[in-house]
Amino acid sequence: MPAMQNPPELRPDLARARLSETKRDGQPTIGMVSLGCPKALVDSERILTRLRAEGYGISPDYSGADAVIVNTCGFLDSAKAESLEAIGEALNENGRVIVTGCLGAEPDYITGVHPKVLAVTGPHQYEQVLDAVHGAVPPAPDPFVDLLPSSGVKLTPRHYSYLKISEGCNHACKFCIIPDMRGKLASRPAKAVLREAEKLVEAGVKELLVISQDTSAYGTDWKDRADKFPILPLARELGSLGAWVRMHYVYPYPHVRDLVPMMAEGLVLPYLDIPFQHAHPDTLRRMARPAAAARTLDEIAAWRAACPEIVLRSTFIVGYPGETEAEFQTLLDWLDEAQLDRVGCFQYENVAGARSNALPDHVAPELKQERWERFMEKAQEISEAKLAAKVGKRLEVIVDLVEDDAATCRTMADAPEIDGNLFIDEGHEALSPGDIVTVEVDEAGEYDLWGRLIHG
């Protein structure tokens, strides 16, 4: 997943943590910027929660902070460049910078460009980050004033939250260095995940976004386990908490078929985020990914049979080394047949340390761009037709933002930040973020919907 700087309303360096931040006398403060994917955002929340519990304040800007933490992304070279730029910006504006996150797995790379950083720590090394902060800015807690809500510091809006269930990955995809940066699969204990989820729901969270590197493999790293596939009982337990539960990064293993009936029951949202990456068996083999695209179509048909309203989101890579025009055309044809609801596409990019760099027949940049455009045109056609079919239907939506001219909402088919929105532009004044309401869809675009509130 390429670097995604969190949008302004979600960026922790703009102090969108869910706390009132009136600085008390003598309170040390920390600024923060979080780059990359939602998994990095969860790491940032954990770091800030620990620091907040120790009495640190969260600064709304670099200049007012005693030090700044930059949580980096290192998945692609473009992500590394963005991370280095963010570090440079923090150094210019503050001067006292601690680096953590995925790019922190390459400390020499960072200090070679920015030798003045105070410390560099790797991904999910919470203790080392805290040690570095303590060294730069000693804590000065006041137990009578520094109260921390039970849900901790959240960098997302109050009504939804990412729930990270594991770290690392056991796959060996040639284009990816995440296992090198974040290690092998290490699943969190189910009790800890459920306790966190319960606290979030008690604090008012209406939607839990389940994330990891490989959600369907959750718990398969435990030697002594009661269930062969622990994601299934975990999903059922999460579904009993009364919030929307959305599954991200689900690999299409056969046991995913057992998740889908929970979607039909209404326990889990009928939404699967599955990284297919390509459809041609030769391309998939060069990627070192399962090369059974035809069987994948059978799986999709089985999921839709078990839960007709299921929404499928996926990401793909075009221009992978060795990709021929025939292989790319197979991908377009597969997309036509699969009729996925939500699709993202990235042009292949070399990443330092990835085995795909050494593959022969790299695709020229202009050809990658041309294929990306053709792919997105096809995906847009499919999206437009699918959304047009929703006009006249009644849907449940969750409200994200209420402004004077409209309320921005999401249907069950839409994850925050990456999918579309549904807009209500009349009679929305009494709505609040986190409300779940029924609308009738009266207009559709390429990626978004418009609707009117249904009362009663």
UniProtKB/TrEMBL annotation:
Q: Where is the Radical SAM core domain?
A: 155-385
One Pfam family per UniProt: Radical_SAM
Top-level EC class as recorded in UniProt: transferase
Where [4Fe-4S] cluster 2 is bound, by residue?
169, 173, 176
Q: Where in the cell is it found?
A: Cytoplasm
- CDD domains, A to Z: Radical_SAM (cd01335)
Q: InterPro entries, from UniProt?
A: Elp3/MiaA/NifB-like_rSAM, Methylthiotransferase, Methylthiotransferase_N, Methylthiotransferase_N_sf, NA-bd_OB-fold, Ribosomal_uS12_MeSTrfase_RimO, rSAM, rSAM_horseshoe
Its principal location?
cytoplasm
The alphabetical list of record keywords is: 4Fe-4S, Cytoplasm, Iron, Iron-sulfur, Metal-binding, Ribonucleoprotein, Ribosomal protein, S-adenosyl-L-methionine, Transferase
What reaction does this enzyme carry out catalytically?
Answer: L-aspartate(89)-[ribosomal protein uS12]-hydrogen + (sulfur carrier)-SH + AH2 + 2 S-adenosyl-L-methionine = 3-methylsulfanyl-L-aspartate(89)-[ribosomal protein uS12]-hydrogen + (sulfur carrier)-H + 5'-deoxyadenosine + L-methionine + A + S-adenosyl-L-homocysteine + 2 H(+)
Q: Which GO terms describe its biological process?
A: tRNA modification
Any one GO MF term held by the record is: aspartic acid methylthiotransferase activity
Q: Where is the TRAM domain?
A: 388-455
Q: How is the cofactor bound?
A: Binds 2 [4Fe-4S] clusters. One cluster is coordinated with 3 cysteines and an exchangeable S-adenosyl-L-methionine.
In the record, the note on similarity to other proteins reads:
Belongs to the methylthiotransferase family. RimO subfamily.
Q: What does this protein do?
A: Catalyzes the methylthiolation of an aspartic acid residue of ribosomal protein uS12.
Name under which the protein is recorded = Ribosomal protein uS12 methylthiotransferase RimO
